[in-house]
Amino acid sequence: MTATNAKKSRLRFLPYVIFAALAMWVAAEVFFINNDPEPGASSRTALEEQVLKAARNGDADGLKQLFAKDSVADDYAKDYLDRLSDAEPSGLKVSVHARGGAEFLTLAGASGSTSGKSGNAGESGKAAKGGAICTSWQVESDGGRWFLDGTPPVEPTPCGG
User: Fold this and answer.
1) How far is CA 128 from the centre of its chain?
2) Cβ neighbourhood burial of 106 (10 Å; 0-12, 13-18, 19+)
3) CA separation, residue 30 to residues 19, 22, 23, 27, 38 (Å)
């Protein structure tokens, strides 16, 4: 066998290798798209549970996917959870209240922080040194999914703001 024949023999398999690599890439993309979590929550109760779980676990990605599209910046959930962590929360609870013609999901608890880092825990939140933590987001439903709206409410919130 000459060098030319050996080279042709190896090149003969090149299209099959390229096709196999392309097929594997397409299969991986389909898998990841189908297994990507659907945004929002399936019910209002599920929304409450997922917000509480994300807050307790510091899960910024989990919290971010609960907000309505384009209602918060990409880093809002991470920044919010960082501030919440700074407040050293305890006894976090989630509830939904109707107020001023809108429904609000409220995350509330006590702040154990004595580090002097007081201030807002969020757009409509309050966190005082050694005091209460309270953040409310408006709740909305779209296409059978439940979301938080990160736009600061104009209506009075259950946090009193």
Assistant:
1) 25
2) buried
3) 17, 12, 11, 5, 15
By the 8 A CB rule, do 134 and 111 touch? no
Residue type, 118: S
d(CA 150, CA 67): 7
Beta carbons within 10 angstroms of residue 68's beta carbon: 20
Cα dihedral sign for 128, 155, 123, 109?
positive
- pLDDT per residue as tens digits for the range 31-67: 877 776 788 899 999 999 999 999 999 999 999 999 9
- pTM tops 0.90: no
- Please tell me the distance from the alpha carbon of residue 124 to that of residue 89, in angstroms, as a whole number: 17
Listed in sequence order, the DSSP H helices in 12-161 are 14-34, 44-57, 60-64, 76-86
How does pLDDT run across 96-109, given as a tens digit for each residue?
988 878 899 999 99
Structure tokens given for 140 = 């909305």
pLDDT at 120: 43
Cα gap 8→142, rounded to integer Å:
59
